[in-house]
Amino acid sequence: MRLIQLTDAHLHADIHARSRSGIPWRQFTAVIEAVAAEQPDIVVVSGDISQDESEGSYARAVEALNELRCPWFWLPGNHDDVELMADAHPLLNEVDIDIGRIVLLNTQVPGKPHGKLGSDRLEALANTLAADERPVIVVMHHPPVDVGAAWMDAIGLEDREAFWEVVGTFAHVNMVLFGHAHQAFATTYPTAAGTVEVYGCPATSDQFMPGAPTFSVDQASRPGYRVIDIQAGEWLTWIERV
């Protein structure tokens, strides 16, 4: 099975609108074209689909993503309007796949750049994980670990310790994918139940400078996506740039 992660498109209703170092719509469609050539079985978009939080921006995203010949799913980031997203394409909490499940978490705190699950979402996550022992990939927008850039770490998942306390109860959580950081990232997180692989993904739009103490755009890097090939419970993952 081939899973591809996209993230942080930051689209506008105006396809000619510029970001800090590019044109998000042009970058997004170039990435979609490259992803289509990968022949994925499933695509997950981990938040910040929109920059202007407009109905038009989500319509543009759906238009492009529907060109993929596979199912695709998304979840909100801090810049997204959840109601407009849900009107444009369903927002699901979990998806069945050949090797198990993908659990999609909403970490948005409306009007704030940081993320938080809170007690209700954490309880729901625990119940979801307890209900089925098939392997799980968790996808979320905000990083549940430090990525090494002080400004980004300050606006990651606020209640990350509580998240890991829940996840650490279940050995069948194999992988966590996140967005928000606009950069490639990989680490492992040891829990009481075993080690979880944790991966960040380049944005389809601007890239952020790894390790920067304050906000900084990486002008030398390109948009990209993460590929995850899964066979017989094992996976190989890498980043592609466009």
UniProtKB/TrEMBL annotation:
Belongs to the cyclic nucleotide phosphodiesterase class-III family. Residues 1-183 form the Calcineurin-like phosphoesterase domain. It comes from Halomonas dongshanensis. CDD domains: MPP_GpdQ. The keyword tRNA processing does not apply. This is Phosphodiesterase. Keywords: Hydrolase, Iron, Metal-binding. Transmembrane segments: none annotated. PANTHER family: CYCLIC NUCLEOTIDE PHOSPHODIESTERASE CBUA0032-RELATED, PHOSPHOHYDROLASE. Pfam families: Metallophos.
